[in-house]
Amino acid sequence: MNDLSADKLAIRETVENWVLWRDAGDWERFATVWHPDGWMTATWFQGPAQEFIRVSREGFNKGVNILHFLGGWTCEIAGERAISQIKMTINQRAQVDGVLVDVVCTGRFYDFFEKREGRWGIVRRQPIYEKDRLDPVDPSAKLELDAERLARFPEGYCHLAYLQAKNGFQVKTGLPGLRGPMVEKLYVEGKEWLAGSMRPGEPL
């Protein structure tokens, strides 16, 4: 195995470990996928990775049900910098107006990686939200969404945001979707990171 293949394998393993350890509540190992200055952005959280670990653990212990699944992956490496993209789904189960529902949001994890002291770690994770849907767990259940409230949220994650807001989360709007200026800005930041920029863009 050459150095490039070994680097790609290490990055892919880190991406997969993020999902497995976070969703399983394996917080000590989950902390190892990040560099100390790592930054996490999600619909419901934006901040340092260590704080994300803390609030994720609190939610996990309270029964918050958010799971992730991964798909196709690609990676660009330039020296000790990398941009990783992987297809993903975010799955959250919760009550909406007394009805138990599942939301599935499809998108990508767009990750700024750096190799420090021989270890690849995440410096910034920015999800890209492409489309989502909401379904009652019981197909016979009746649920009518507030169309005006739903329309307040971006198309790529409107149902996820609707559920989260109903359950007390503070949801950030304006996050990158499949098209538009925010995702184009993210792509530019990725290219600048590979070219040696001082910071991994402007984390949201």
Task: Describe this structure in a few short sentences.
By secondary structure, this protein is an alpha+beta fold.
Structural summary, described in words:
By secondary structure, this protein is an alpha+beta fold. It has one domain: Nuclear Transport Factor 2, Chain: A (Roll). Helices cover 33% and strands 38% of the residues. The protein is built from 6 helices and 6 strands; from the N terminus they run ααββαββββααα. It has helices spanning 3-24, 27-30, 49-62, 147-150, 158-166, 181-194; strands at residues 34-41, 46-48, 65-78, 81-96, 99-116, 119-136. It has a 6-stranded mixed beta sheet with strand order 2-1-6-5-4-3. Strand 5 (99-116) and strand 6 (119-136) form a beta hairpin. The protein is globular and about 55 Å long.
- Output the radius of gyration: 17 Å
What's the architecture in CATH terms?
A: Roll
Largest sheet: 6 strands, mixed
Model regions low in confidence, pLDDT < 50 over at least 5 residues: none
Report the sheet-strand fraction: 35-45%
List the domain count as a whole number.
1
| Averaged pLDDT | 97
Figure out the total of helices. Answer: 6
Task: Tell me the span between the first and last alpha carbons.
Answer: 37 Å
Q: Based on CA inertia axes, which overall geometry fits? A: globular
Instruction: Please count the beta strands (DSSP E, at least 2 residues each).
Output: 6
Helix/strand class: alpha+beta
Give me the side-by-side strand order of the main sheet: 2-1-6-5-4-3
CATH class call: Alpha Beta
The proportion of residues forming helix, as a percent range, comes to 25-40%
CATH topology group: Nuclear Transport Factor 2, Chain: A
